Amino acid sequence: MKIPLFPLNTVLFPEGELQLRLFEPRYLDMVSECLRSDGGFGICLIREGGEAGELADFFPMGTYVKISDWDQMDDGLLGIKVIGERRFKVESYEVQKDNLCIGSVTLLDEDDETLPVTYQNFSDLLKEIANRYELPLRDVPERFEEAVWVSDRLAELLPFEISAKQSLLEMDNALNRFDYMQALLEKIDSGEYSQS
After folding, report:
1. Residue 6 pairs with which residues in a beta bridge?
2. In whole numbers, what is the pLDDT of the chain averaged over residues?
C-alpha cells in the first residue's frame, strides 16, 4: 500500500483524534487528493528535523489516518481533523518533486484481546481520567474491557515523553504496553521520571 507520509512532532494512536493547521503546498495538495479519493495518509513521529520545510527524518512506525472534518480558517490556513485508523510500518519511501514523501507501508493488525482481570487497574485509571475531565470516552463503557483500546487511550492521555509514546505505538501486544506504562508510572511516582 502506498500512502503520503506526514512527519510530525506528535504520536497518534488508532482511533485517536488530531487537529492540524496546514499551509505548505505539498500538504494542501495531499489533503485535496485525500478528500477527492476518500484516501488517507500516514503520520510518523519526527526523529530529527522540523515539521515545515525540508523533509525530516522520521520513525518508520506510524498511524494511518483519515480526514473527518476540514475548515478554511480565519488566518487563511486550512484546518483539518484526522482520526487514526491503523498502525503501519514503512517499508520504503520516495520523495516527490514537491517534497511530499510517499511511503510503501504495511498495515498492522491489532489483537482483540479482552482486558485480563490482572490488568483491570488500567481500565479503572482510564475511567477515572475520563470522568475527571469529562471526556467523551465515558460514552462507550463497553470499550473499557478492550485491552488495545484501553492501552491506546492511556498512551495518549498519560504524561509520558514523546519517545515513550513512540515506544508504546511500536509494541504489538497491549499487555506489554501496560507493563511498560506501569514502569513509567512508578518512575513518575518516585520522582525519577523527567520529561526532556
Report:
1. 43
2. 92
List of domains in the chain = 2-107 (2.30.130.40), 117-190 (1.20.58)
How far apart (Å, rounded) are the C-alpha atoms in residues 146 and 84? 17
**Helix axes 147-157 and 120-132, enclosed angle (nearest 10):** 50
**Residues 80/20, Cβ–Cβ less than 8 Å:** yes
Answer whether 11's CB lies under 8 Å from 70's CB.
no
Residues 153, 144: Cα–Cα separation, whole Å = 10
What is the pLDDT at residue 24? 87
**Using one digit for the tens of pLDDT, what is the confidence trace for 143-188?**
999 999 999 999 999 999 999 999 999 999 999 999 999 999 999 8
Residue 44 and residue 62 in contact, taking contact as beta carbons nearer than 8 Å: yes
**What value, to the nearest 5°, has the Cα angle with vertex 150 and ends 145 and 156?**
165
Mean pLDDT of 88-99: 94
Q: Name the nearest CA neighbour of 60 among 84, 86, 42, 39.
A: 42
